[in-house]
Amino acid sequence: MDLPHLRTGDVMQSLASTLNISIDTPTNAIALEAADGTEWFIELSASGEHVVVHTDTGRWVAPTLLRQDDLERLLALNTDLRLMQGAWLGIHEASNSLRLMTTVPASSASVEAVDRKIGKLHALRETITGALLRNRSTHMPAVSTA
């Protein structure tokens, strides 16, 4: 279902309605649980111009559990535009988690667009966490410089 030209406040309500789920009214956030138990969050940016999709990278990748150089190496992946494809890693201090995030322009938000973004983030998260699991010293894929 395409949702073009919706007013800012309608984007999240329309997505929630289409997904047949309740929405957290104070934040207008939608939380989804995948079959593997991971949680995915969908919310409107503060400006209302983007729908933000994010998930954590796994409980064992908590920023406080990583050495500073490992955390810096992970965050340096944000500069690898080919790998990240518009996504980025960020620290969510309240939950002590490393979040993988992306956006969809609110003007073109649809269930299909959000679902595609979740699929891309899921594959990216698997790449990042797979690299960490294979090598606990967190040697990440090569980071290219832009």
Describe this structure in words.
The chain has 146 residues and is α+β, with helices and mostly antiparallel strands. Helix content is 34%, strand content 21%. It is built from four helices and five strands. A five-stranded antiparallel sheet has the order 1-2-3-5-4. The radius of gyration is 16 Å and the shape is globular. The protein starts with 7 loop residues before the first helix and ends in a 12-residue tail after the last helix. Mean pLDDT is 76; it is low at 1-8 and 137-146.
Major β-sheet strand ordering = 1-2-3-5-4
How far apart are the first and last residues' alpha carbons, in Å?
A: 36 Å
According to DSSP, the number of beta strands is: 5
Strand content: 15-25%
Derived structural class: alpha+beta
Comma- or semicolon-separated keywords:
146 residues, alpha+beta, five-stranded antiparallel β-sheet, 4 helices, globular, disordered N terminus
Fold topology:
Blueprint: H1 8-19, E1 30-33, E2 39-44, E3 50-56, H2 68-76, H3 81-84, E4 88-92, E5 97-105, H4 111-134
What is the structure about, briefly put?
The chain is α+β, with helices and mostly antiparallel strands and 146 residues long. Helices cover 34% and strands 21% of the residues.
